[in-house]
Amino acid sequence: MEMSKQVKIGGSVYRIEQVGNLNDDERVLFGHLNEWKKLIQINSDPCEQTQAQTLVHEIVHAMSNEYALEFNETTTERMASAVYAFIKENDWVILAIKKAGT
């Protein structure tokens, strides 16, 4: 899956890396957010849809941190699922926002 190399969230720029066999020495991970390094890692092994959903999930984690939302994992998962579905079903909204910003 082709991904941008970075994303800006709040006042921070997060690098995005795709990593094969991403794990934490105990289990395989779909994604990982390193807040200190401002790094989002996405496991490149799953299908593209799973990678995209994981990217949104990790972005929601970063938003929670950047905006002091204090989401727990359940809230993060629910918000990520809602945002992913909204973007997939309403891509015109993203285009309208981008157009309005020019």
Plain-language structure description:
The protein has one domain: Arc Repressor Mutant, subunit A, CATH 1.10.10. β3 (31-34) and β4 (39-43) form a beta hairpin. It is α+β, with helices and mostly antiparallel strands and 102 residues long. The longest helix has 19 residues, at 48-66. 45% of the residues lie in helices and 21% in strands. α1 (48-66) crosses α2. The two termini are 28 Å apart. The protein has helices at residues 48-66, 73-89, 91-100, and strands at 6-9, 12-19, 31-34, 39-43. The chain is built from 3 helices and 4 strands; from the N terminus they run ββββααα.
Which structural class is indicated by helix and strand composition?
alpha+beta
Element pattern in H and E: EEEEHHH
Number of strands: 4
CATH topology: Arc Repressor Mutant, subunit A
Low-confidence stretches: none
Nearest-integer average pLDDT: 95
| Strand line-up of the largest beta sheet | 1-2-4-3
Helical proportion? 40-55%
Based on CA atoms alone, the radius of gyration comes out at 14 Å
Distance between the termini: 28 Å
CATH architectural designation: Orthogonal Bundle
Overview in brief:
The chain is of the alpha+beta class and 102 residues long.
List the helices and strands and how they pair.
Layout: E1 6-9, E2 12-19, E3 31-34, E4 39-43, H1 48-66, H2 73-89, H3 91-100
Parallel strand pairs: 2-4
Antiparallel strand pairs: 1-2, 3-4
Features:
alpha+beta, single chain, 102 residues, Arc Repressor Mutant, subunit A, 4-stranded mixed β-sheet, 4 strands
